[in-house]
């Protein structure tokens, strides 16, 4: 906007609600009012977190108290329709951990190596193709991943390993794919933000390109990379729809890599629709446990990103 | 980008077999990542595109013809209302953080922390919260409005972050110039800072739209799964993602689910592309 433009605009709309520079008192009043409105908006996100916590915890903790903390967390049987009903979510906790662990085993090595490739190996023309691909991978809705798992991965696993294909292995594989873009994105920025002198120093000492990247640059970026991995884990443990479509959903103790399993998230979605009474509250309590996992991961994430601002800020 | 090492120098690699192995692994990993993208998108498109029939876009949903048109319209309404709630809140919040808050302000730190927390909360927890708060406590029932409020909270941190980055990238000289011409703070924010950051803010909002369109878990128990077009905001309606989930779940309509997936993918990709284009235009304007 040129100066002439802005002056003419100033003349033309001097009657609108923006205070004229001269009207001292009204102006101060409006300015102050606006600041308060902005402040209130800023406080909304705090309010949102508080309200979410209050609702989830207030809904879940009485149920945990009623079932008993150890029976709830450590109970191996989830039989809400039995008489008397049993609400042990240990199978689902294990299910979530196994599936997430599997996703990490699949996604982290591939993701980190791809991040190294993107930051240090990728020829420029290829980068122009690969980078948008990875961005789009992050944008694909989880329900579409779920459909892909259902029509592609499940039949393959069924043919190779027997069973019905809806199992820990399938879910882990699919989740591993889904967390790739998160891990690649953050790790790539972390690797890129390592000072060039580290690399040059290593090469000057006679290291090959690969050795310099692998033993000097990569370790130097480790806190940013770890933050990316943690974010990936958070995504995997919180993923719902894709897991429901491929994990089998049986609420029982996991019986091996190729047996069906139910995660905490799946437990909530599967039974929420027709639950009532204590059953309903037990599902909210399941969310409390899930929320606990996420809060721990978030804490790790913020500790990691705030510790070394040099690497962490570049998210 | 350093390209120093990017030469297939077999002599060096013979002397350093580990380096060769590392180089190989890195290339394989990148190929795998590309393969994942191609496989997911390719399969969905190959499976879905042949299933796209004009009848899937009929105005009415019936059990014989699982038209996605009502779901598309519901999705558009959902996006519109959610943005109406979340965009002003998110933008004003960032305005406060970047323009008003003083350096080292404690509120800023807490707001950042909560925004980070919000971003990490799984969508199913949002869904459950929406059900407990809007559907049950406020007695809205399964309704479009409950769904809108739920996803609004979800996209708030996304809009906040992108707006904040956009506002920060507005040079201070703009603000100084505005003050120098006698404008007050409020006027400077609305007439100078926000318009200059417009593209960045817009890019963030478009990404938020993508997130709403792809959302399923947060909406199932807030907006509900009724297949017909809701007549008002207090009625239940399903967005395209939920429509797709319901179709795939019933097992009878996997083909139609694939067709819906094609529409979802194309929409999300188009939105991503648009956001990228706008952000790029922003960079060009800078130079």
Number of E-state strands of chain B: 0
User: Distance between termini of chain B?
Assistant: 21 Å
CATH first level of chain A:
Mainly Alpha
Q: Supply Rg of chain B.
A: 24 Å
Extended strand count of chain A: 2
CATH class of the largest domain in chain B: Mainly Alpha
Cross-sheet strand order for the largest sheet of chain A? 1-2
Stretches with pLDDT under 50, minimum 5 residues of chain A: 1-15, 309-315
Largest sheet, strands/sense/barrel of chain A? 2 strands, antiparallel
Strand content of chain A: under 5%
**Known CATH architecture of chain A:** Orthogonal Bundle
CATH level-four homologous superfamily name of chain A? MetI-like
The proportion of residues in beta strands of chain B is under 5%
- What number of domains of chain A? 1
Query: What name does CATH use for the topology of the largest domain in chain B?
Result: MetI-like fold
Shape of chain A: globular
Structural notes for this entry:
The complex is a heterodimer of chains A (315) and B (287). With 315 residues, chain A is mainly α. Chain A has a single domain (90-312), classed as MetI-like (MetI-like fold, Orthogonal Bundle), CATH 1.10.3720.10. Chain A is 77% helix and 1% strand. Chain A is built from 14 helices and 2 strands, in the order αααββααααααααααα. Chain A has helices spanning 3-12, 24-67, 69-74, 90-121, 124-139, 142-161, 168-192, 196-204, 209-220, 222-238, 241-246, 264-272, 277-307, 309-312, and strands spanning 78-79, 86-87. In chain A, strands 1-2 form a two-stranded antiparallel ribbon. In chain A, helix 2 (24-67) packs across helix 13 and helix 4 (90-121) packs parallel to helix 7 (168-192). The longest helix of chain A is centred in the first third of the chain and has 44 residues, at 24-67. Chain A is globular and about 75 Å long. The model of chain A is unreliable at 1-15 and 309-315 (pLDDT under 50). Helices cover 74% and strands 0% of the residues of chain B. Chain B starts with 9 loop residues before the first helix and ends with a helix. Chain B has helices at 10-15, 17-48, 69-100, 106-120, 123-137, 144-168, 172-180, 185-196, 198-214, 217-220, 240-250, 254-286. In chain B, helix 5 crosses helix 6 and helix 6 (144-168) runs antiparallel to helix 9 (198-214). Chain B is mainly α and 287 residues long. Chain B folds into 2 domains: 11-51; 54-286, MetI-like (MetI-like fold), CATH 1.10.3720.10. Chain B is built from 12 helices and no strands. Classes of the chains: A mainly alpha (315), B mainly alpha (287). Chains A and B meet through helix 1, helix 2, helix 4, helix 5 and helix 6 of A and helix 2, helix 3, helix 4, helix 5 and helix 6 of B.
């Amino acid at each position: 906007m040129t100066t002439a433009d802005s002056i003419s605009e100033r003349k033309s709309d001097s009657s609108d609600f923006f205070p004229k520079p001269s009207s001292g008192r009204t102006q101060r009043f409006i300015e102050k009012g606006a600041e308060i409105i902005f402040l209130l908006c800023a406080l909304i996100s705090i309010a949102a977190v508080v309200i979410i916590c209050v609702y989830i915890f207030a809904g879940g903790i009485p149920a945990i108290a009623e079932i008993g903390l150890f029976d709830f967390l450590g109970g191996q049987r989830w039989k809400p329709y039995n008489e008397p009903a049993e609400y042990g979510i240990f199978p689902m906790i294990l299910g979530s951990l196994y599936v997430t662990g599997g996703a990490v085993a699949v996604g982290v090595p591939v993701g980190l190596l791809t991040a190294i490739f993107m930051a240090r190996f990728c020829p420029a023309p290829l980068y122009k193709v690969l980078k948008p691909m990875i961005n789009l991978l992050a944008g694909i809705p989880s329900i579409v991943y779920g459909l892909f798992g259902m029509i592609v991965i499940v039949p393959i696993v069924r043919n190779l390993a027997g069973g019905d294909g809806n199992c820990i292995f399938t879910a882990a594989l699919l989740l591993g794919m889904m967390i790739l873009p998160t891990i690649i994105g953050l790790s790539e920025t972390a690797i890129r933000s390592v000072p060039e002198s580290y690399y040059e120093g290593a090469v000057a000492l006679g290291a090959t390109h690969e050795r310099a990247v692998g033993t000097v640059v990569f370790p130097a970026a480790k806190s940013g990379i770890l933050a990316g991995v943690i974010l990936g884990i958070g995504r995997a443990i919180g993923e719902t729809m894709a897991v429901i479509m491929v994990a089998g959903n049986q609420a029982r103790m996991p019986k091996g890599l190729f047996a069906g399993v139910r995660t905490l998230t799946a437990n909530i979605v599967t039974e929420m629709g027709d639950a009532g009474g204590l059953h309903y509250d037990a599902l909210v309590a399941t969310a409390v446990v899930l929320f606990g996992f996420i809060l721990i991961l978030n804490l790790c994430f913020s500790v990691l990103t705030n510790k070394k601002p040099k690497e962490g800020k570049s998210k | 980008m350093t390209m120093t090492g990017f030469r297939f120098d077999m002599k060096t690699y013979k002397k350093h077999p580990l380096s060769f192995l590392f180089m190989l692994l890195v290339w394989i990993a990148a190929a795998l990542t590309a393969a994942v993208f191609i496989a997911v998108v390719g399969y969905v498109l190959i499976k879905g595109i042949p299933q796209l029939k004009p009848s899937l876009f009929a105005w009415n949903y019936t059990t014989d013809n699982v038209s996605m048109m009502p779901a598309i319209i519901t999705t558009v309404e959902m996006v519109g209302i959610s943005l109406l709630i979340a965009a002003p809140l998110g933008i004003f919040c960032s305005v406060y953080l970047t323009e008003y808050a003083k350096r080292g302000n404690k509120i800023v730190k807490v707001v950042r922390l909560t925004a980070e927390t919000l971003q990490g909360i799984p969508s199913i927890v949002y869904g459950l919260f929406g059900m407990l708060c809007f559907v049950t406590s406020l007695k809205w029932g399964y309704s479009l409005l409950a769904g809108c409020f739920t996803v609004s909270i979800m996209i708030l941190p996304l809009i906040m972050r992108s707006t904040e980055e956009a506002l920060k990238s507005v040079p201070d000289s703009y603000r100084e110039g505005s003050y120098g011409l006698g404008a007050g703070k409020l006027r400077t924010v609305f007439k100078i800072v926000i318009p200059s950051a417009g593209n960045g803010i817009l890019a963030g909002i478009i990404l938020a739209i993508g997130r709403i369109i792809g959302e399923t878990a947060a909406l199932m128990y807030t907006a509900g799964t009724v297949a017909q077009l809701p007549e008002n905001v207090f009625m239940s309606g399903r967005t395209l993602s939920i429509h797709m989930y319901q179709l795939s779940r019933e097992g009878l309509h996997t083909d139609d689910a694939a067709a819906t997936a094609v529409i979802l993918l194309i929409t999300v990709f188009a939105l991503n592309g648009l956001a990228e284009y706008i952000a790029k235009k922003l960079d060009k304007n800078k130079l």
